[in-house]
Amino acid sequence: MIKNQYTSLKVVFLFFIFFISIFLGIMFGSTGLLVGDVVEVKELLFLRLPRVVLALLTGGVLAICGAALQSILENPLAEPFLLGVSGGSVLGGTIFIVLSGLFGDSIFGIRFFSFVGAIGALILLLYVNQRQGVVNPINILLTGVIFNGFVSSIVTIFKAFIQPVKLQKITLWLSGYIPYLSIRDMLFEIIVIAIVGILLILEAPKLNILALGEDIAKTSGINVDVLRKKIFIYTSILTGIIVSLTGLIGFVGLIVPQMLRFMGLINNKILIPLSFFVGGSFVIMSDLFARVVSGLYGFEPPISAITAVVGCPVFVILLRDYYRERGGG
Amino acid sequence: MLIFQDFSAGYGNRFVLNNIDVRVDENLFIGVIGRNGSGKSTLIKSLAGLIYFVKGEIFYRGISLLKRKSLNVVSYIPQEINVVFGFSVYEILRMSQRSYQKFFSRISNSERKRLDDVIDKFELKGILDRNIFSLSGGEKKRVMIARGVAQNSDIILLDEPLSGLDIDHQIKVFQILKEISLSGRMVVASVHDLSMAAQFCDKIMLLDNGRLIRYGTVEDVLTYSNVKNTFGVEVYVGVNEINQKRFLIPFK
User: Fold this and answer.
1) What is the pLDDT of residue A259?
2) With an 8 Å Cβ cutoff, are B103 and A4 in contact?
3) How near does any CA of chain A get to the CA of B76, in Å?
4) Distance from CA of B249 to the nearest CA of A (A)
5) A168 pLDDT above the threshold of 90
6) Does the distance separating the beta carbons of B101 and A206 come in below 8 Å?
7) Buried b (16+ CB within 10 A) or exposed e, A118-138
8) pLDDT higher than 80, residue A163
9) Which of A152, A248, B77, B231 is deepest in the core (most CB within 10 A)?
């Protein structure tokens, strides 16, 4: 069997980085300290570990969704926040914050409302796309973008009328953050992510064939419409859950799969599972950076700002090399 | 037997192909010829099950080609090749096999044999680990034709397989397709080069303006008057003394 001889080496290297980031994520706290007598084991297990797990899930899920969407939409620039579900989630969360005086004020409220918003948006978008009979990638993109535009204008209207405290809260939530939640608090989400994530990964070989062209996939015995619908539903559920937990953390879903492709890891069977770990490392490290800054300067920068600041230059460098390799094409 | 029964096909709500009624024997290499826009690609795509606006029926061995759910009876090689990601040539060939579609299943011996066979026939050994994006247009085309041939299908459908190939590979590809048709699979290809069609195809379908004007042997179809009437071009139809096949030279 012919295989790229460096593939396993690259995979090992990326896993090495993954374990390092987990290690650092657990060892460093906002006080900037390593483990030792100052930090109790309790803090380690009940505060940092769950936060690292949540960061891993966030980055991992956004990255596998990005990888899968880029395949079904046959567009390397697709990412999870193009799906309307993220808009639905944002709308749900915003409505909760606006009404938070009525329902009390808890992180669970935001999570519940934004998850309901995501599911609502998924059903609405499926219904709209379904009417044409076939799931057309362009329609998925367009309806998602239009829906998100609609939602963001509603959020803007809300912002104009609410108290400054709530406004700040919305802004914080929209720019993404990794909250301290215990593993037990996230258990439901973890189980759903595991199941849906595995279902998504199992479609990887079919996504490879789809990348040869829709007509070739269809004549290879793949029901392309069903495949697209499945991926659309899986990625929507996953993205909805993640937005409800951590808000909008941009760039991970776009950059991580692209970065791996630039490294020559094209095969979705390797790319999608690996995106989970690399996306996870990326968000763990970004979150760690945010915590260290907050320990040193007393404020925590929004995590999506960090992912963008780190991600953009890396992406530009990779893109340049990529085009050089492809001879400008 | 492949049977078209009053078959029409098109896009949107306009038929491009009208009332095709013909019976085609199996184990043949069939060339589809006609002017641009005469419906060649639509005919090939209809057989591939890729056209949804259809009327009438196409039966293959008594089974409707239009109503079946899975389309693995055919392999289809499109005219334009748009691979989205830079897979290696081997990976693309590997994707032609049924076992590939399951995440954990391994390649079977018969599948491996089919792959080795096309790699050998299409002379792809030297470029197996090359990125598809790094290949020339002609090499890409050969890889995709090889992929279609490697697929375990009864009918191989090719939309202008010769475009982009050099003369050496044009002949090699058509020789392989001819061998395949002799070994019991059906090959249907749209062809622009009338002499190539005359040298290699068993039967010719001549389309004009969405209608099947003639179906028959090279000698019946590729005549001066048929070509003049459909293409509006005058050709000299000669006979190659070496193999007694026809060739056509346009002169006016």
Assistant:
1) 87
2) no
3) 6
4) 35
5) no
6) yes
7) bbbbbeebbebbeeeeebebe
8) yes
9) B77
Inspect the interface and report whether the beta carbons of A216 and B129 lie closer than 8 Å: no
pTM of the model: 0.88
- Type of residue found at A213: G
> Would you call A208 and B48 a contact, using CB atoms and an 8 Å cutoff?
no
CA dihedral A253, A194, A48, A81 (to 10 degrees): 20
- Contact list, B144 vs chain A (CB under 8 Å): 212, 216
Chain A contact for B134, CB < 8 A? yes
- H-run or E-run covering A14: helix A7-27
8 A C-beta contact, residue A63 and residue A279: yes
> To which CATH superfamily is domain A7-325 assigned?
ABC transporter involved in vitamin B12 uptake, BtuC (1.10.3470.10)
CA distance B109 to chain A (A): 13
DSSP, residue by residue, B51-97: --EEEEEEEETTEETTT-S--TTEEEE-SS---SS--BHHHHHHTTS
- % of chain A at pLDDT higher than 90: 31
At B223, the pLDDT band (50, 70, 90 cuts) reads very high
- DSSP annotation of B191: -
Span B174-191, average pLDDT: 94
Q: Which residue did the predictor score with more confidence, A155 or A134?
A: A155
